[in-house]
Every structure is written in C-alpha cells, then in structure tokens.
Design a protein that fits this description.
- With 209 residues, this protein is an alpha+beta fold.
- It has two domains: 112 residues, Orthogonal Bundle (Butyryl-Coa Dehydrogenase, subunit A, domain 1), CATH 1.10.540; 70 residues, Butyryl-CoA Dehydrogenase, subunit A, domain 2, CATH 2.40.110.
- The chain is 38% helix and 14% strand.
- The chain has six helices and five strands; from the N terminus they run H-H-H-H-H-H-E-E-E-E-E.
- The protein has a three-stranded mixed sheet with strand order 1-4-5, with helices on one face. Strands 2-3 form a two-stranded antiparallel sheet.
- It starts with 6 loop residues before the first helix and ends in a 17-residue tail after the last strand.
C-alpha cells in the first residue's frame, strides 16, 4: 500500500504538530474568548517558513504545493481552528491572489514581505447585502484622473467578515466593476493599510474563527 504522505511530508507534519502542541493548543480557547488575533502564533508559523509555502522561491517563498500546505493546515487546525483560518487566509486567499493574478510589479512589491510573515494579508469579498456572491458585489471601481493628470482608480464600498482584517497590511479587495460582463467583470484590487479613505472597524461577538 502506497503511503498517503511522502517522507518529506511526514517530517513536515511532525514538525508542525510539535509546534502546534507547544505553542497553539495551550492558548486556543483564550484566543477565541478574548477575540484576539494570535500574532505570536502567526510569527511562530512565519519562523517555520509556513507563511510563504505556496509563494515562488524568487519572491521569498518555498515554492511548495497545496498538498504540502494541506499537511500543515491539518496539524494547525487540530490545535487551534482560529490560527488555521488566519494561516489559510494569509497564504491562499490574500498572498496567492496576488501571486496568481498580480502583475510582476505587484508580485515583487508585496510577496516577499508576505512570504516572510513581515506583513499580513487579508481577503475582502463578503458584503452585508450580497454575502459572498462575487457576481452581486456592490463595491464599485471607477477609473479617474488625479489632480496631476495621472490615471487612478476609485474604490467605493464596504466589506464585512474580513478574516485578518483587523491587523492586515495588505488587502485583496474584490469588486464587480462590470455586471454585464459576468465573472469577467469581477476585479481584485490590492489595498494597503493606511491608504487615504480606507478604514477598518473591529467586529465583536463572533467565533474566534
């Protein structure tokens, strides 16, 4: 019978399991109760190289595949569901969106610091009126000219249930700029924390996840 894990994946699972048992599990209930972002745990995952697993080596990641990443997530989730949600959002939804769909300039600008865990990524899709239906998003994106005559985009709308949003440095924000175009009208815009007009409000009373 062929082993489900490769030898390398078995070693990876063991390493993450030991870390999770020591650093994640003891604080799992506390993180949820206090509605606290597990920043120390996230930094620990970064030190193990797990925050850039699927990012290419040229951008500071390890260039691994999703099967390896699922091995990691399984061990993290067994110890702390909240931290696993933080990790999958950072890697798969925030960082990987830029890696797969971003320009070379965008990838060079943001991926190294996301892969290292120096910066945290968030994913902003869900809206109050439309849920997570990407084709019904109300957030708008319009092209305009700045006072200096340069091309710019104006993003207008609001999101909710944005995992990692309270602490993130880089947000992948989704908008439907052309409803008539169907799925081709859906666009993701990278927004950095501190961008003028961009605010983040805390949400309370939810599960830690």
């Amino acid at each position: 019978m062929q082993p489900f894990y490769t030898e390398q994946q078995t070693m990876l699972a063991t390493t993450v399991r030991e870390f999770a048992a020591e650093k994640l599990a003891p604080r799992a209930d506390e993180v949820d109760t206090l509605e606290e972002f597990p920043i120390d745990q996230f930094r620990g995952l970064a030190e193990l190289g797990l925050t850039g697993m699927t990012i290419p080596e040229e951008f500071g990641g390890s260039g691994g595949g999703y099967r390896d990443f699922m091995v990691v997530l399984e061990e993290v989730a067994a110890a702390c569901g909240s931290t696993s949600t933080v990790l999958i959002t950072h890697v798969s939804l925030g960082s990987q969106t830029i890696n797969q769909a971003g320009s070379d300039e965008q990838r060079q600008r943001w991926l190294p610091s996301l892969a290292s865990g120096q910066k945290i990524a968030a994913f902003a899709l869900t809206e109050a009126g439309t849920g997570s239906d990407a084709l019904a998003l109300e957030t708008s994106l319009t092209r305009a000219k700045s006072a200096e005559g340069k091309d710019e985009y104006i993003l207008n709308g609001s999101k909710l249930f944005c995992t990692n949003g309270a602490v993130a440095d880089v947000f992948s924000v989704f908008t439907n700029h052309d409803r008539a175009a169907g799925h081709r009208g859906v666009t993701a815009v990278v927004v950095e924390k501190g961008t003028p007009g961009f605010t983040v409000n805390p949400q309370h009373g939810k599960m830690g996840m």
